[in-house]
Write a structure and sequence with these properties.
Blueprint (H helix, E strand, L loop, with lengths): L1 E5 L2 E5 L67 E9 L6 E5 L9 E2 L8 E9 L1 E9 L2 E3 L7 E3 L5 E7 L1
Antiparallel strand pairs: 1-2, 3-6, 4-5, 4-7, 7-8, 7-10, 9-10
């Protein structure tokens, strides 16, 4: 019989089948289920342990009563916002939007309304203190505010209107 050692286990291979010797009659035993055949260790990599490492049983901790909540710390006051109304005149029935540094220049983020049908489009925003650049988008065309006296050049070689909120 040949013996081959692999990763701390021994596998026995028979050289040739032999006739089984006669057995003595034994007392009858209860029927057992055949044990599942373990895979040969030759198929396993050498770094796999022979038996799984036993883990310590998890410790059970007694349930704790919920801790009393502490009063919330005073939050710093949010910057005070000022309501700012933007106005522009356009043809009745136009689609008018407001875009600027306060809404990442999204041309459809803030629609303006012509509430009385006269062509005066308005919208109101609450803005904290600061300096903001903006433009109107009228029927898809970007336009500076014709009533604004403060403006700056931009990367598109056009101008942006500027408003400062105090």
């Amino acid at each position: 019989m040949a013996t081959k050692k692999t990763a701390k286990t021994t596998t026995v291979k028979a050289a040739a089948p032999k006739a089984a010797p006669a057995k003595k009659a034994a007392a009858p035993k209860a029927a057992k289920k055949p044990a599942a055949k373990a895979p040969e260790t030759e198929d396993l990599p050498l770094d796999v342990p022979e038996k799984p490492v036993a883990k310590a049983p998890a410790k059970k901790t007694p349930a704790k009563a919920p801790a009393a909540k502490k009063p919330a710390a005073a939050k710093p006051a949010a910057p005070k916002a000022t309501r700012v109304t933007f106005r522009v005149r356009a043809e009745v029935g136009s689609k008018v939007f407001l875009a600027g540094s306060f809404n990442d220049w999204d041309p459809a983020a803030k629609a303006m309304a012509d509430k009385d049908g006269t062509g005066e489009f308005t919208c109101t925003l609450s803005l904290p203190k600061g300096r903001y650049e903006y433009k109107f988008v009228i029927n898809g065309t970007w336009c500076a505010d014709p009533e604004c006296k403060d403006w700056v050049g931009n990367d598109m070689n056009t101008i942006n209107s500027v408003i400062v909120v105090d």
